[in-house]
Give the backbone structure.
Amino acid sequence: MMTKALQPLGWLGIVRLGLVQTGLGAIVILTTSTLNRVMVVELALPAVLPGALVAFYYAVQLSRPRMGYGSDVGGRRTPWIIGGMACLALGGILAALATAWMASDTLAGIALAIVAFAMIGAGVGAAGTSLLVLLAMRVAEKRRAAAATIVWLMMIAGFIVTAAVAGQHLDPFSNMRLIAVTGVVALTAFVLSLIGVWNIEGQQTVAKTAPVEEEPQPSFAQAMKQVWAEPMARRFAVFVFVSMLAYSAQDLILEPFAGLVFGLTPGQSTQLAGVQNAGLFVGMVLVALAGSGFGERRAGPIRLWMIGGCVVSALALVGLVVGGQMNAWWPLHANVFVLGVGNGAFAVGAIGSMMGNVSRGTKKREGVRMGLWGAAQAIAFGVGGLLGAAAVDITRLMMESPALAYGAVFAAEAVVFLVAAHLATRIEAGPQKFPKTGEGPGAVATAELVAR
C-alpha cells in the first residue's frame, strides 16, 4: 500500500484544526456554565444537580482510550473528530431541552440531562483525543509548542465569544430562547469543525501491486496493556493526573479566598480571575514563542517549560499562603498574575509533550496513548475542584482563621505541583522526525524517534 506524501502543516493548517477546539469550547461553556446557572437560579434546583452532571461528563471521558483505540484500528482520525463533534453538538441541544423540561417535569428533565451529558462527554472525548493525535502527526517538532498554544487559545476564544454573544441573545430569558441559542451555537460549532478538518488528513491511495497482508489487530484490552507497560506512557499519565489535579483544585477557592481574606467585592474578585487569565495567556504565549525555535535536536526545552511552569505555580501558591497572613500589604493581583503565567507555561508544555511523545512506543497505539492521557486529565479535573472545595471546608472547621484555612489548602496544592515537577523530570523528551519520503499521516507515527 502506498499513500500520498504529506508535508507538515503550516500555520494556516494549524489554525484550521484549532477551529475544532473553538467549536468544542463554545458548546462546553454553554452546557457547563450557562445551563448550570439556569438550573440553580431560574429553576431553583439544588446546586448539586449541575455539579453531578458535570462530574458525570468527566467520568464518561474515561472512555477516551477506547475511542483512541478505535481511531488506531481505522487508521484515520477525521471520522472520529467529525463524529465526536456531531455527538457533542446533539448532546448540547438535548441538554438545553432537558433543562427547559425540568421546569415542568423535573425528573424527566434530569433523565434526559443524564443522556445529554453522557453524549457531551463522549463527544469531547472522541473529538479531542483524535484532534491531538492528528496535530501530533501533522505538525513539525519545531512548531509543536506554538501549535499547542494556538489550539488552546482558540478553545478559550470559543469560551469568550460564546459567553459574550450567546449572553446577549439569551435576554430576555425564556426556555425557548435557551433552546434556540444553544441550537445555533451547536450548529455553528459543527460547521467550524467541518471547515477545520476538511482535507487536512489527506486521502490514501492504493497502488496496484501485490496485496500486503495486514497485521492482526489486538483487542482493546491487549492494546491498553501494551501502552500501560511502556514506562514513558505510564509516567506521563501519572504526571498529567497529578499536575492537572493541582491545576483544577485552585479553581473554586481562589475567588472566595480573595473575598474572605482580602475583602474583595464580587466584582473585584471577578476582575482578579481576569488577571489570572491574563497571566495564563502570557505564559502560553511565552512557551509558544520560545518553543517555535526548538529544533529536532533540542526537544528538552519544552519539557523544561513544563517543569518550570509547575515550579512557578507552586511558588505563586506559597505566595498566597504568605499573602493571607500579610493581608493588605501583599500584592495580590501580581501574585495571581504570576500564578496564571506558571499555569499557562506548564499547561502548554504538557500539551506539547503529549504531541511529541504520542508516537513513542508500540506502533499504531497513538490513539490509545493520547486517550490514556486524556482520561487522566478528565479524572483530575473531575475530582480536583471537588477536593479543593472540600479541603477548605474541612480546614475551616479546624481553624478559626480563614487565612490559615485557605493557606493550608494552597500549601498542599503547592506540594502537589512540586511533585508534578519531579515526575516531569523523569519523562524523556522524544521528538519525531518527518520522513523525507512521505507515506501519509501514518508514516509520522512510525518515523524514527530521537530520545534526548
Q: What stands out?
A: The radius of gyration is 22 Å.
